[in-house]
Amino acid sequence: MNLDFKKIELFAVAIYSLSSLALFIILAPLISIFLITDLETIDKILISDYRYTAQVYSAFTITLEASVIATTILLLIGIPLGYLLSKFEFRGKEVIEAIIDLPLLTPHIVAGIMILSAFGRRGIQGIFGFGGVEDSLTGIILVMMFVSLPIMVDTVKAGFNSIDIKYEYIARSLGANRFNVFKDITLPLAKNSILAGYILAWARGVSEVGALLIVAYYPKSINILIYEWFMVYGLKYAAALSVVLLSLFILIFASIRVLTR
Amino acid sequence: MIEIRDIEVVIKGFKLEIDYMDIRDGEYMIVMGPSGVGKTIFLHTIAGFIRPDEGRIYIDGVDVTRLPPEERNISIVPEDYGLFPHMNVYENISYGLKIRGYSSREIINKVTKISQYLEINDLLHKMPSHLSAGEKQRVAIARALIIDPKILLLDEPLKSLDPRLHIKAISYLKNLREKLRFTALHVTHNIIEAFYLGDRISYLSDGRLVGTYTLKEFIDSEYGEEYIKGIRELSKMI
């Protein structure tokens, strides 16, 4: 019995130690970036020095605009796709699921080159001759959509999958056709997953930088600005801007957690 | 009248066969049989959730085999009642009427009438998560009956009730049926439910409908004997 007890203790210690190590990997960079940043630099880039503030507010505006447009379009196309993959059986479904998850595994620079070749001057833009993708807001939106699509679709699909089929059966027996069931039953019951999909996809889009370096360096989004400041001024200003961005993210996620509790 | 002819359903290697069954208007038909014999598959086939591989289902002589569930006018009460968790009791009960395009006034009148019948008029603004099992059962029955279905399918609707409530619920269903005279197909394992509520009993065994019996015929059959034997043994133990 004693031996068993010791074994259990050892097991618990191992679990706690390894879990702490996992947390440390996230917490160490998070805490240290706050520690190396001084308030004076933050004041300079956000309030007092126009050379920096103009760039920061412009980059934030562009990032917010592009990310909200990208995620809203993704919501409109991601819900039907998630529903299709959750509720319908058809040939080639697994292939489509694998294709949707491809952006998760694609190196970010490669994703940028793929987007440029498909939608740039040598792709659809060149063929149809419509507005620019390279170095444009459209380019940023396309990049954000490409990298965020799997997160949106997978989260929404998981939400649809988690709904007990009996509710849809009962609604149909009461006279609802497929569309009414979708509108009145499936969609409201999946609303938390849809909201989670929207937030996660938005966050993923905002955090992209690799593909943006290739497709749309200009207009400068916030991550491009952080990258540029790091290359030009070193860690000090890049870290200060990163802290501002991180604080915003933490605030948004904490508020959502509280609101959806 | 509902007629089921030569139905064959194959799902994941399981085969259900019903050669013939009829349920007359106003009749309360009980379906019994061991677990895993295909009783729920049978109900889902009648409701239109599962399309049979062979055979035909007729309602008042009209072939509904290929009709989607929403065009059959058959309602169902599942084992755990399946109340829509995001709608309150009023919204649950009125859903079928709203879908059918009834006016708000008609909906209010009908919901008020049926909720008085089922003694749930004080629950209308409650969410399903705040109801007891017995209350959920009444709401589910109200939601199913308000559309005036051709047949009400009940899939072990009293299974999750504790013994005290169970007896009460059987007697409640019996009274309700006498008041409203609806046609029902009620799946159960419970012989007391079957004898108290049923007009006839259909028995499924090994994926086949082996017969439809009056209560007296069922007691005399080999399947009924098993149940009676079980009750005798239980009473000896007590």
Keywords:
heterodimer; A: 261 residues; mainly alpha; MetI-like fold; 13 helices; 0% strand; globular; B: 238 residues; alpha/beta; Rossmann fold; six-stranded mixed β-sheet; four-stranded antiparallel β-sheet; 8 helices; 10 strands; 39% helix; 25% strand
Question: What would your notes on this structure say?
Answer:
The complex is a heterodimer of chains A (261) and B (238). Chain A has 261 residues and is an all-alpha fold. Chain A has helices at 2-36, 39-48, 50-87, 93-105, 108-119, 124-128, 137-161, 165-173, 178-189, 191-206, 210-215, 222-233, 235-259. Chain A has a single domain (39-163, 190-259), classed as MetI-like (MetI-like fold). The two termini of chain A are 42 Å apart. In chain B, the strands form 2 sheets. Chain B has a 6-stranded mixed beta sheet with strand order 6-7-8-3-9-10, with helices on both faces. A 4-stranded antiparallel beta sheet of chain B has the order 2-1-4-5, covered by helices on one side. In chain B, α5 links the parallel β7 and β8. The interface between A and B is medium-sized, with 17 and 25 residues.
Q: What topology emerges from the helices and strands here?
A:
The complex is a heterodimer of chains A (261) and B (238).
Chain A: H1 2-36, H2 39-48, H3 50-87, H4 93-105, H5 108-119, H6 124-128, H7 137-161, H8 165-173, H9 178-189, H10 191-206, H11 210-215, H12 222-233, H13 235-259
Helix pairs in contact in A: 2-3, 2-13, 3-7, 3-10, 3-12, 4-7, 5-7, 7-10, 8-9, 12-13
Chain B: E1 2-11, E2 14-23, E3 28-32, H1 39-47, E4 54-59, E5 62-63, E6 74-77, H2 89-99, H3 104-117, H4 133-145, E7 151-155, H5 163-180, E8 184-187, H6 191-197, E9 200-205, E10 208-214, H7 215-220, H8 222-237
Parallel strand pairs in B: 3-8, 3-9, 6-7, 7-8
Antiparallel strand pairs in B: 1-2, 1-4, 4-5, 9-10
